[in-house]
Amino acid sequence: MLIKELSCKTGASIRSIRHYESRGLINSERSPNGYRNYENDAITRVKTIQLYLSLGLNTAAIGKIIDCPILPHNNHPICQEAYILYKTKYAQVKAQIQILQQIQSHLESKMKEFEQSTAETSNNEMRR
According to the model, what pLDDT value does residue 78 have? Predict the structure, then answer.
């Protein structure tokens, strides 16, 4: 199939597909006219890449696990590299959540201070 058809079947942009190919994540054959020609398994591969990208992995990390053996019943990789990558990413996400919770708490505190200040100012003006 041509790149446009692969794009339509996966929702990935043509530019993204070219990027995945430049990173060695997918392969194509060149026809005599220079067009990229993809096998049907490229659809599954692009969807797998999209899944990993949605998990926050970059293409370098995906390249390390894209060829891991897959469990047929749940489509999950079963290699040690994938486990290590998931564990590392989980720790990063957990740390980001903690930072965001601290920011949320700080913002809530500042908003309450503002609301209290505004209420006090409004009450003082009403008393006048």
Answer: 72
Number of H helices, E strands in the chain: 5, 2
pLDDT of residue 100: 97
How many CB atoms neighbour CB 120 within 10 A?
A: 10
Length of the chain: 128
Q: What is the dihedral of CA 111, 117, 118, 124, to 10 degrees?
A: 170
> Residue-wise over 55-74: b if at least 16 C-beta within 10 A, else e?
eebebebbbebbebeeeeee
- CA-based R_g, the chain, Å: 25
Q: What is the mean pLDDT of the chain?
A: 89
pTM above 0.85, yes or no: no
